[in-house]
C-alpha cells in the first residue's frame, strides 16, 4: 500500500484520490482475504459482478473506482492490465444540467444568510469548483483589480477569474460582518445547526447542503449540484458572447475539448436552434 500511495503521489494525484482508490482496493482484498495481485481474473470478475448487483446506481461508482484502483495497483507493480483481465470503462456521454439566469437569481433570492449568497456568488460568478470555493482566502481577493486568484485548483494550477462588482459589494459586507481572519468562510461552528460543520471552514457536505436547500427553496425542479453552477457559469458566458478560449482559461481546463462541451448546450445568438413547430404554426395558422 505504501508503494501504491507513492505512485499516486508521484503522478500528481491528490490525497483524496489515493484514499478513494485505496478504499476500493482494500474492499476486494478483505472480500477474498488476500492481495489483489494474488487473485485470478475470474475472482476479480466475480467481485465486480457482486458490486454491480449490490450497488445498483446508474453511474456504477463502486464498480468503476474499483477498476481504476486495481489499474493503479497493477501499474505500480509493473504488471499489465490484462494480468487480471480488467474490463474497459466506457465513459458515458452525458451533457451537464444548466440553470437559466432566472433560476440562478431565484436561488440567490431564496438565501436567508448573506454567507450563503456570497457562496453561490463565488460558485456561479467565478465558476469555482467546490474545493476552490472552500479554499478562498482573504489574500486571494483583489477588489481594486476586480480579480480573484484561484490557488492550486484542479491540476495544481493557479488562475485568475474576474470579480463582479455585485459580488465585491457582497464580499465587503460579509467580511465586515463576519470578520474572517484567513479563510473567507471560517466562522465558529454552532451546535445543532442544519448543515453540520458548515460554519467552521466549509466542508464539502456543508456546501452541498446550501446548494440543495437554496435550489429547493427557489422551486427548481432540475437536479442541482454544486458543480451545476460552474456548468451554468461557462454556458452563460458563451451565450453572452465570450469566446471559447477565454472560457477555457477561466475554467482552468487543460484541453479545449473539455470546454467545447458547452457549445452543445449554449443557445448562441448567431446559431440559435429552434423547433419546426414554431415555423409550422407561423406558416399554417395564418388566417386564409
Automatic annotation (TrEMBL):
Ranges for domain Tyr recombinase: 94-275
Keyword NAD in record: no
InterPro entries per record: DNA_brk_join_enz, Integrase-like_cat_sf, Integrase_catalytic, Tyrosine_recombinase_XerCD
Name recorded for this polypeptide: Site-specific recombinase XerD
GO molecular function: DNA binding
Keyword Transferase: no
Originating organism: Flavobacterium nitrogenifigens
Keyword vocabulary terms for this entry: DNA recombination, DNA-binding
Example GO BP: DNA integration
UniProt family annotation: Belongs to the 'phage' integrase family.
